[in-house]
């Protein structure tokens, strides 16, 4: 019995001393999902950022469907399209700005996209993975309070 207790105590001490490995809080198999997606069936959704509103305010997307979200700022101020929880629950292909002088960014996830006044545009290529309803809003000053918010629903 004494050996069993000692073995249990040693095992417990080892477990408590072992480093804790946290699960990622974003879609970690994104590259696999992106590669398997049918990009020929890509759906494009345009979102216009006006001063203190999004058009459309609410989006409905389908899990597993590849999308290109075109975010255009038609307002007179810079604006954010902030949807951190949604952005962590999609598989990212890329974010790009228009050619010929644009850029392309690849990352496991983003928290927000800022689109500049004067016609700025960003294109988000993604595949929604986790179903649910997600908040989107502008984080600049009081823009959210003035009506710059909405939802993204993944069905």
Summarize the structure.
This protein has 155 residues and is an alpha+beta fold.
Provide structural commentary:
The chain has 155 residues and is α+β, with helices and mostly antiparallel strands. It has helices spanning 2-17, 30-36, 84-88, and strands spanning 43-50, 53-55, 58-61, 67-73, 79-82, 90-96, 104-105, 112-115, 121-128, 132-137, 149-154. Strands 2-1-4-9-6-7 form a 6-stranded mixed beta sheet. It has a 3-stranded mixed beta sheet with strand order 3-11-10. A hairpin with a 7-residue loop joins strand 6 and strand 7 (104-105). The longest helix has 16 residues, at 2-17. The N and C termini lie far apart (56 Å).
- Adjacency order of strands in the biggest sheet: 2-1-4-9-6-7
Distance between the terminal alpha carbons, to the nearest Å?
56 Å
Number of helices: 3
Low-confidence stretches: 1-22
Mean pLDDT: 88
Quick tags:
155 residues, alpha+beta, six-stranded mixed beta sheet, three-stranded mixed beta sheet, globular
């Amino acid at each position: 019995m004494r050996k069993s207790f000692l073995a249990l105590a040693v095992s417990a001490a080892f477990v408590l001393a072992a480093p804790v490995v946290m699960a990622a809080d974003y879609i970690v198999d994104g590259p696999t999902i992106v590669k398997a997606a049918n990009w020929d069936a890509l759906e494009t959704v345009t979102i216009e950022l006006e001063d203190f509103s999004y058009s459309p305010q609410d989006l409905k997307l389908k899990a597993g469907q590849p999308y290109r979200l075109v975010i255009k700022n038609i307002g007179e101020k810079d604006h954010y399209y902030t949807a951190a929880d949604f952005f962590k629950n999609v598989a990212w292909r890329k974010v790009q700005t228009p050619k010929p002088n644009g850029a392309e960014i690849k990352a496991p996830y983003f928290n927000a996209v800022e689109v500049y006044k004067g016609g700025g545009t960003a294109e988000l290529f993604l595949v929604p993975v986790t179903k649910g309803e997600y908040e989107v809003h502008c984080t600049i000053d009081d823009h959210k309070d003035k009506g710059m918010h909405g939802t993204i629903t993944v069905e």
